[in-house]
Amino acid sequence: MLVSGIKSRPVYGTLAIRPGAKLHLFVADAEGAQAILDAAKTAEAAFLDRAHIIYVPGAAAPKNFGAVLKALGPDMFYEGPSIAAALPRLAQTLATAHMGTQIYLAGTEGLIGQAMKLAIEAGVDHLSIQTEHRGSEERRVQCVHCKGITEHVRTQPVQCAHCGLMLLVRDHYSRRIAAFQGVCIDAEEPGVVPPTEEAFP
């Protein structure tokens, strides 16, 4: 479902530990945990003395990555029950971070987008943040009509969790709100809605 030529569409890479950083700040969900482990394999173990890991396993973590990440021996490890619960910890870490901090975000687009939004608000240039997408392609969608956010969107169209409108999920992504845009799909012909299909598995 990715549309080429959409300039706002996020572009992801592969995490690579940057030597010499004063702090390595990782944020990952269950899908992104393996990206941290893969990056750690190719880096000097000493980087972990200056590493903070913020981990959100989610409700259906495939394995106990929390214990595996903690066993790496980072300077600080935090495991939170949800992205919303982890964001204050990330904000606190960013508030005390110094020049030379490297930020690594890995996992689903919902986690990456929200963590990047917070980092940008803290004054970090988004181009200096490494990201690696892992796992589901589900989207975080903002209804342009009521401004409500619907999480974990996998279908096209999708019903807004706030106002109930059926939304066409566009490929336009807003970094400011960390969400894709959803517009009413039957505005011109109320009630005429195409069959719902899984679009973002």
Main sheet record: 5 strands, parallel
Distance between the termini: 10 Å
Strand order of the largest sheet: 3-2-1-4-5
**Rg (C-alpha, Å):** 18 Å
Number of helices: 4
| Overall pLDDT score | 91
Helical percentage: 10-25%
Output the structural class: alpha/beta
SSE run: EHEHEHEHEEEEEEEE
Number of strands: 12
Ranges where pLDDT stays below 50 over 5 or more residues in a row are: none
- What share of residues are in beta strands? 25-35%
What would the principal axes of the Cα set say about the shape?
elongated
Task: Give the secondary structure arrangement, pairings included.
Layout: E1 23-29, H1 33-41, E2 51-56, H2 65-71, E3 76-79, H3 83-95, E4 101-107, H4 109-121, E5 129-133, E6 139-143, E7 149-153, E8 155-156, E9 158-159, E10 166-174, E11 179-184, E12 197-198
Parallel strand pairs: 1-2, 1-4, 2-3, 4-5, 6-11
Antiparallel strand pairs: 6-7, 8-12, 9-10, 10-11
Question: What do these coordinates show?
Answer:
- With 201 residues, the chain is an alpha/beta fold.
- It is 21% helix and 30% strand.
- The chain is built from 4 helices and 12 strands; from the N terminus they run βαβαβαβαββββββββ.
- The protein has helices spanning 33-41, 65-71, 83-95, 109-121; strands spanning 23-29, 51-56, 76-79, 101-107, 129-133, 139-143, 149-153, 155-156, 158-159, 166-174, 179-184, 197-198.
- A 5-stranded parallel beta sheet has the order 3-2-1-4-5, sandwiched between helices. Strands 7-6-11-10-9 form a 5-stranded mixed beta sheet.
- A hairpin with a 6-residue loop joins strand 9 and strand 10.
- The mean pLDDT is 91.
